Amino acid sequence: MASALSLFEHSFYIGSYMSGILYGVELVMYFLTLQGLFRKGNHNSPRSRRFFALYSTVLVMLLTIDISANAVWGEQMWITFRDAPGGVPAFIGTQVSVWYQTLGSTSVVAMIFMGDALLLYRLYVIYGSNIWVVVFPILAYLAAFSLAIIELVLAGKPGGDFFHGQTINFGTPYYTITICLNIIVTILICARLIKLGKAVSKALGKESARMYTSVASMLIESAAPYSLVGIMFLIPYAMGSGTAISFGQVWAKLTLIVLRVVTGRAWGREVISQAESNVQFVGRSTGIELGSHGYSSHGTTLGEASAPEKWNASSKSLSS
Questions:
Q1: How many CB atoms sit inside 10 A of residue 245's CB?
Q2: Is the pTM of this model over 0.85?
């Protein structure tokens, strides 16, 4: 019992510090996102700018609630009530379902579903708006959502425990479905980007196409780090280990795709449709042109392009 308690306390302490660091990173990305959305020359549509501004703001608010709840709970456990009858073990046993801790858990679940919803939308976009690709992932998403509500209700009841008891019977399938969904979507997105990346690299050359075809871009587009940390959380959670809380505090905070989308570096419908079609990219110092039969690089014509259409990659919106 003492060793399990010590493991939980260490995990909570480490997870709180790691989440605090990531909170700072998230704030930086949030302000960079707003700067990118409202800077002069941004070609995202007004509707797109409003959506991503609202999405990012809600995400930061939920993250702030989670960080604050864990900070208050840790302060109460280790400082305010450390000399109360029963000490830390009694506090954990009676206050694990306190209202603000349940609120923090709810905010984490909300962040996970917001991240998954955006990931599903990116899957839809990257597969050329093919609705059939996202049918099964959406069904899995809805199933996980139902289980998450049951889990939160059970955890919020008096005597409830997010990491033990009846809650874990619903939490384990919920997180399993969610993480399997992340893995499947990650594999689908990576496979698609590898295929499209070859077409873009062939047309633009490896250097010019690196913004879309690099390993880093594929990891961010597919949310691979998000899926990896989810697996690291699920295993100890299903085993009832206290280490789960350290990974749980980090998991929902790994979102990078929003910043990539609003700064015009993400794969969008236009780039994907161009890569899928016979239209070829034409690299220029002032932008990128499109031709139906050939392309030129750095002003040297490699084929005869007809009816070129200019596309400035540095400013054209790729978020739709």
A1: 25
A2: no
